[in-house]
Write a sequence for this structure.
C-alpha cells in the first residue's frame, strides 16, 4: 500500500513539474505549431513528439497522457484546486466531440505537406523561430509576446473547461491528441501482445467506490471493476484507482492480454 501511495505522489509531483516547465516545453506538444510548420514546409518538434506518443501508445496505452502531457498537467493541477466532480453518467455522449476535433486536426496537419508537396525545409527543432533558435528563450519581445499569447489561451481554456466540466474535462471532451492514444490502445488490445494495462481481481472489492471518486478522468471505475474488464478508451492509466483502492483490487499488468 505504501508503494502505491508513493507512486500516486510521484505522478502528482511530475504533473506539477510539467506545469512549471511549460515556458520551456510548450512548443514540443503544440497541436497548432505542427499545422503551421506543415504549411511553411517544416517538420516541427511537436510532429516528432506526437509521432513518438502514438508509437508509445502501442505498448503503454494512454500512459503518456498521465505522465508526459503538460496540457494534462495544467488541467490536473488546476482541477485539484477546483475539485468539481465529473459526472460519468452525463458525459459519455460529450466525449465523442474529441473524435470530430481529431479528424479536423489531422486533416489540417496533412493539408500543409500536401499543398507544399512535402516538407521541403525538413526538421526544424526551433520552429517557429528556425532562423533564430534563441528567440524563444532570450526574452526578446517576440518571445515574451508568444508566452503571453500561449499562456493567455492555455490558461483561459484550462480554467474554463475545469470550472464548467471538471478536472481534465478538455482531455475528456475536446483534445485531439488524446485520440492518438485511443487508436494506439485499440490496436494493442486487438493484437493482444504484452502491453501496459489494468488488471482486476474483483472478488476482494467491497464496492466502496473510492476508485470512481478518485479517477482523474471521472470514469465510473467501479462499473469497470464489476464487469471484470478495466478497458475504457478514456482511461489514461494514471494509477489513481490503484493507489486509492483500500483492497488492492486493481493493478498494472504488462503480460499477454487474454
Ligand atoms: S487528452 Fe490531450 S490534453 Fe489530456 S493528457 Fe492526453 S494529450 Fe494531454
Ligand atoms: S476502491 Fe477498490 S474496493 Fe472500492 S469499489 Fe473500487 S475496486 Fe472496489
Ligand atoms: S480508471 Fe484508474 S488508471 Fe484509468 S484513468 Fe481512472 S484512475 Fe486512472
Amino acid at each position: 500500500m505504501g508503494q502505491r501511495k508513493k507512486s500516486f505522489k510521484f505522478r502528482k509531483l511530475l504533473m506539477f513539474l510539467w506545469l512549471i516547465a511549460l515556458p520551456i516545453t510548450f512548443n514540443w506538444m503544440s497541436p497548432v505549431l505542427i499545422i503551421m510548420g506543415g504549411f511553411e514546409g517544416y517538420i516541427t518538434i511537436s510532429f516528432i513528439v506526437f509521432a513518438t506518443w502514438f508509437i508509445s501508445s502501442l505498448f503503454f496505452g494512454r500512459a503518456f497522457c498521465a505522465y508526459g502531457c503538460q496540457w494534462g498537467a495544467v488541467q490536473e493541477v488546476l482541477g485539484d484546486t477546483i475539485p468539481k466532480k465529473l459526472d460519468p453518467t452525463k458525459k459519455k455522449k460529450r466525449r465523442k466531440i474529441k473524435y470530430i476535433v481529431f479528424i479536423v486536426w489531422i486533416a489540417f496537419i496533412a493539408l500543409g505537406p500536401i499543398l507544399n508537396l512535402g516538407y521541403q525545409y525538413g526538421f526544424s527543432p526551433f520552429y517557429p523561430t528556425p532562423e533564430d533558435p534563441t528567440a524563444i528563450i532570450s526574452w526578446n519581445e517576440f518571445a515574451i509576446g508568444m508566452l503571453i499569447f500561449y499562456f493567455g489561451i492555455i490558461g483561459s481554456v484550462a480554467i474554463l473547461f475545469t470550472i464548467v466540466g471538471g478536472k481534465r474535462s478538455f482531455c475528456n471532451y475536446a483534445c485531439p491528441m488524446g485520440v492518438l492514444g485511443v487508436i494506439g490502445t485499440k490496436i494493442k488490445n486487438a493484437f493482444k501482445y504484452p502491453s501496459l494495462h489494468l488488471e482486476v481481481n474483483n472478488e476482494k472489492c467491497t464496492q466502496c467506490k473510492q476508485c470512481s471518486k478518485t479517477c482523474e478522468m471521472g470514469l465510473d471505475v467501479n462499473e469497470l471493476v464489476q464487469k471484470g474488464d478495466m478497458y475504457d478508451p478514456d482511461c489514461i492509466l494514471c494509477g489513481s484507482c490503484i493507489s486509492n483502492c483500500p483492497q488492492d483490487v486493481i493493478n498494472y499488468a504488462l503480460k499477454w492480454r487474454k
The longest helix spans residues 141-165. The CA atoms of residues 85 and 209 lie 14 Å apart.
